[in-house]
Amino acid sequence: MKKLLSVSVLIFLMVFAAACSSGGDKEASGSGDEGEGSSWTPENSIEIVAPSGAGGGWDTTARMAAKMFGETGIIEQDIGVVNKPGGGGAVGWAYIKERNSPYNLFVSSPPILLVPLNGQSQYGHEDFTPISNLIADYGAFAVKADAKWDNLNELFEDMKKDPSSITVVGASSPGSMDHIQFVKIAKAAGVDITKIKYVSDQDGGALTSLLNGSVDVYSTGIAETVEQVKAGKIKVLGITAEERLEGDVISDFQTAKEQGIDASFVNWRGFFGPPDMDEAALKFYEEKFKALSESSEFAEIRNKYGWNEMYMNSQEYKEFLDKEKADIKGLLEELGLAK
Amino acid sequence: MDVFQGLAQGFQVALSLDGILFVLIGVSVGTVIGMIPGLGPITAIAVMIPITYGMDPAIALLLMAGVYYGAAYGGAASSILLNAPGVSEAVATTFDGYPMAKQGKAGKALAVAAIGSFVGGTISVVFLTFFAPLLSKVAVSFGPPEYFALMLLGLTAIASLSEGSTIKALISGVIGLMIATIGIDAQTGTLRFTFGSPHLMEGIDFLVIALGLFALAEVTSLILGRKNKMDDMHNVGSLRLTKEEYKEMGPTMGRQSVLGFLVGVLPGAGGTISSFLGYISEKKLSKKPEEFGKGSIKGVAAPETANNAANNGAFVPLLSLGIPGSGTTAVMLGALIVLGIQPGPLLMTDHPDVFWGVIASMYIGNVFLLILNLPLIPYLSRILLVPRPLLISLVIVFCVIGVYAISFSTFDLYLLLAFGIIGYLMRLLNFPAAPLLLAFILGGMMEQAFRQSLTISNGSLSIFVTSPIAGTMLLLAILSFIVPLIKNRKAAGKENIDKSA
């Protein structure tokens, strides 16, 4: 009897211990010496924050980068990935701002431009130090395989004639990526973007809604469309890349530019450090990310996920972000979404 | 390739040494994770992705699938023993599981849950084996108007989740709907009721509400009530079920295996909604609905069967269409991509070893889970024999860890405390908590589906009746709302006549 009791208590203790450790570890002790000299090397383990739950794009990029840094030996210190979900990224950004340590980096992509413009975060990319951009993804606009449109121009012509007859679906809310990438291309084609009918489906139903004909156009990432195109269920009218991409099926996708619409949208992904990061530390990370981007091991990862190489150093990255933000701001203002 | 050939190939994968080993690891990890609140299968699988890198894709997927359906087994334990659901699909299990534990029948309740999970898991795998390609048509037949109708149908069940006052149940439901609106509105991107706090921007997590309203409120009433003894405790670990009890729960499990599976096939619906629908539909079908909520075996069997069946159902859109039907299957899809496999409509022909290997592994995994779980029951049940003050502290620790593990935010802990207080007040005033939770789960999706539909139709409500599926379900919803009212009125009328006579 007593034995049984202790066994059951033991089981629960183990359970709790497991729960605690899953939450508590990887909290790198942040505040190491930054050093005055021109070179900086980390003395503690490094933490990369994915400002979202486990399993999404940010999380995957962060985990893969951390894993490859370790496997290739580019960075010798341990790198842990921590999820700080909430507020579309705002919770994670506030955390980095508060830590303000060169041992705390985070991964980001266009939402760090969009979320503050939508009035959902007090911090934007200007509040942090862009270290390096690493990869890029592009948007795709898909319709059902038997739809009457065969290219973007036909679709946009119909949208100009009767905007109420065409519904666009995406997985994120208006003012965020799936919406903005479509709006940006449509505007360049001369569509009145304030009349576009856009619905957001965040419960995984966007593709099904397209397949069963509830909606007409699906604005998403290229990777999401490939298998469905192969199976002949949907067709891709256009993608948002600057140039044709390589890859099975993907090489058939026409860019908007090829179709005479002068606009593109890149879903970039890169890494940021705390505000006013120490020069020496920034230089250290910049070099390491460059080495990672050039390694054959990371090339293999890019290949597997269908990511494109898009390395930018800190300076290039910063200028790129400022320009992107100005572009998007214009669109959001026209849509009445900017705050 | 015909089904049997495929299945034979699948068993070759699943019965290999690696196959058996990783299924066993998967279901064991899943069981433990299900028991720990907050640490759901999504997190576990996401953390596994780097580990599976380089593994045979079929083995990697059967490992992850094992974690997924294993978690639905493990989830029942804390619901039944502590009234503290560790995963959202185990919430409906508390309705009758905890009352059973209070009556000293914890072992029995856990046994029913384990057997229900096994039956639901196994029958649904058989469906998955034979009808996956066929059912993939069902999976894409639901658009926004159909989802709205389904959610509304589920919501009409609020009345049947109430004990006593229907008005109070409805008030409770409305509060649930209101809480569901907190956060960024998906259709406009507007912030609603966040009061400037980034912690509220993604809404309130379901588990915060469930643990507060159920576990913390229960603990509070135990402390304040100074009730020292639960009822009869000496047989707490016994899992013996009588023949009558088997007979009683048999049809329930059969029905819920089918219903749960079908709900699981629909992307977005999933284990939580199926467990609620399972509970409610069994209560409606039962000849003795008054037993539900007071420790009915059927009340435990229904949600536990349905949620396991739904988890397997979610593999239909994933494997046959490449469409993830739930958060967890979405993460699995990501993991498959890393392994060089693009899940999509061609998976079955391009990678039959993966497709059939996973299906075959589920047969084995379910047997493992039953063997693993039944012997644990007497030990787990004895947690109830721990002295009361210790047990109460344990429950509180359990809730706090569970909520903190969701997003590592202390803000959620204050919310938990608030919901604990609200839950206790609701008990004092006899407001049922279940309708609040049900409305919260269904409300978010229902509102979004309603507004998506209206955007598509340019504002015309006719979109809800022109679709035959949506129309039928709306009709059912109206009936399920009106019929009990008429019955009550008739019963009341009869009573009056009897009195006057």
Question: Could you please describe the fold and organization of this structure?
Answer:
- Chain A has about 350 residues and is an alpha/beta fold.
- In chain A, about 40% of the residues lie in helices and about 20% in strands.
- The relative contact order of chain A is 0.16.
- The model of chain A is unreliable at about 1-5 and about 10-35 (pLDDT under 50).
- Chain B is an all-alpha fold.
- Chain B has helices spanning about 5-15, 15-35, 40-50, 55-80, 90-100, 105-140, 145-155, 165-180, 205-225, 245-265, 270-285, 295-315, 315-320, 325-340, 345-350, 350-375, 375-380, 390-405, 410-430, 435-455, 465, 470-500, and strands at about 185, 190.
- Chain B has a two-stranded antiparallel ribbon with strand order 1-2.
- Chain B is globular, with a radius of gyration of 22 Å.
- The mean pLDDT of chain B is about 85.
- At the A-B interface, α1, α2, α3, β6 and α7 of A face α3, α7, α14, α17 and α18 of B.
H-E order of chain B? HHHHHHHHEEHHHHHHHHHHHHHH
The largest sheet of chain B is: 2 strands, antiparallel
Major beta-sheet overview of chain A: 10 strands, mixed
Count of helix runs of chain A: 11
User: Would you give the CATH topology of the largest domain in chain A?
Assistant: D-Maltodextrin-Binding Protein, domain 2
Identify the overall geometry of chain A: globular
Residue share in helix of chain B: over 70%
Fraction in beta strands of chain A: 15-25%
CATH first level of the largest domain in chain A: which class? Alpha Beta
- Structurally, how many domains make up the residues of chain B? 1
Q: What value does the Rg of chain B take, in angstroms?
A: 22 Å
N-to-C span of chain B: 73 Å
Overall pLDDT confidence of chain A: 85
Pfam family, one (chain B): TctA
InterPro entries (chain B): DUF112_TM
Organism (chain B): Virgibacillus oceani
Keywords (chain B): Membrane, Transmembrane, Transmembrane helix
